[in-house]
Design goal:
Number of domains: 1
Largest sheet: 2 strands, parallel
Radius of gyration: 13 Å
Distance between the termini: 33 Å
Strand order of the largest sheet: 1-2
Mean pLDDT: 90
Number of helices: 6
CATH topology: Arc Repressor Mutant, subunit A
Strand content: 5-15%
Low-confidence stretches: 1-5
Number of strands: 4
Shape: globular
CATH architecture: Orthogonal Bundle
Order of helices and strands: HEHHEHEEHH
CATH class: Mainly Alpha
Helix content: 25-40%
Length: 113
DNA sequence: ACACTGACCACTG
DNA sequence: CCAGTGGCCAGTG
């Protein structure tokens, strides 16, 4: 929303990182925030996802909390959209919990170095 | 212009 | 070990 002002901020960075998440991989809000250098902004990362809803190129379904739980699934078109998308990419999700989360975990500060 | 909220994470007691 | 609070940025009431 807002006007078309140059309100670019770490939202842009968040989008960029999320877009770089490989298929079948997932990451956490905190990891992205930490990669950007701001641990506290983890909340904002989630809020960024809300805005990301306007950007189809941002696979928000690949972003979960540090626990590997689909916290934001309720924000998708349907509560099952997130899980379905993840399963389509080969990620096993049970009870909103990603199985073998450590195997699917994709850390930008490590993968992007 | 002020205050509160929000898909979180980590530290301190 | 469990519980509580702080911190960060932006948007909305």
């Amino acid at each position: 929303m807002s006007q078309n002002k140059d309100r670019y901020s770490f939202f842009e960075d968040v989008y960029a990182v999320v877009k770089l998440i490989p298929k079948g991989r997932v990451t956490s809000y905190g990891s992205i925030a930490h990669y950007l250098g701001t641990r506290g902004s983890a909340r904002m990362v989630g809020w960024a996802m809300n805005q990301a809803h306007t950007d189809p190129d941002v696979p928000a379904h690949r972003v979960v909390n540090r626990n590997g739980v689909l916290t934001g699934k309720h924000h998708f078109a349907t509560p099952t959209t997130m899980q379905s998308l993840l399963q389509q990419e080969g990620v096993v999700v049970t009870e909103d919990q990603i199985q073998n989360f450590d195997q699917h975990f994709w850390d930008p500060s490590v993968e992007l170095t």
